[in-house]
Amino acid sequence: xxxxxxxxxxxxxxxxxxxxxxxxxxxxxxxxxxxxxxxxxxxxxxxxxxxxxxxxxxxxxxxxxxxxxxxxxxxxxxxxxxxxxxxxxxxxxxxxxxxxxxxxxxxxxxxxxxxxxxxxxxxxxxxxxxxxxxxxxxxxxxxxxxxxxxxxxxxxxxxxxxxxxxxxxxxxxxxxxxxxxxxxxxxxxxxxxxxxxxxxxxxxxxxxxxxxxxxxxxxxxxxxxxxxxxxxxxxxxxxxxxxxxxxxxxxxxxxxxxxxxxxxxxxxxxxxxxxxxxxxxxxxxxxxxxxxxxxxxxxxxxxxxxxxxxxxxxxxxxxxxxxxxxxxxxxxxxxxxxxxxxxxxxxxxxxxxxxxxxxxxxxxxxxxxxxxxxxxxxxxxxxxxxxxxxxxxxxxx
Length: 397
Description:
By secondary structure, this protein is an alpha+beta fold. Helices cover about 55% and strands about 20% of the residues.
């Protein structure tokens, strides 16, 4: 029979204490870097999203300008076409005017029509007043009386000839100007005398479209739709500069501001340039311009050029920069506050863990001391039992 008392195996207090010392901040040192990275990522994603929202605002504004331009252009051209049609009605009722046209008396027709043309030019900005024979040869141009006898093959003239009705559209003329034209057949007792054509430059239309602050317009026409000599004559007549050689494939016929050098590559060109022109910005001196373009077609539907819209977004970008600075400051402040809160929470966790480890070490030390005392008591008890047995054996002898 083994009278030795069993004793427990307890952890080494030095090992417990050593574990606590090996990781003085077990949670803080392990979790803080990862949590910091996550917070930085979240703040960065939010900041990136904020910048994307600002970019979308500028794109939406650019899209709004383009939509407004298209709507205004269609509306104003329609209004002016109806106005030209209305002007033609009393002219067809002018007995002397129609009689001179019917008689083929160019001098008399010029004498009668010139005062009317001057009045219409001053009142409603009519720049073209033509009398055309049934075979579509020009009998008289009030704005250029010395030019006559050429045959008109423009879409509006052909359409008026085909339908025997009023034809309307934007077209280039003999002097290379882009003009809104209204061609009306002239009848006398059922006999076709010819055609009366009124036209006006679209400069006032372009001046009136997109009347937003900071929006400028530049109209560039493809060179293959123009004749250089006629273009230069037309620009001289309108008092504009005819810089034919500036652009490779287009010529500017209207601009509310001088064409910036930075915008030259955005006119015409390949699909990359077109995409760039539709969505990007240029910087001219200290101003930022958002660019969009509207394709221009003539009466036949042929693509003849583009209307470049330049929207000054300098003030908007300055306001957005302020917003970005404020958002950045808020993001940094928020990040600092979150990191401080996380740091405090993790440090408290570390403090609690260290306190628990210290208590475990103290309890382990107490248990070891108790175990040593029990072991010593067990040895003493074993020694006493052996002494008694020896003594009992001596007594028997």
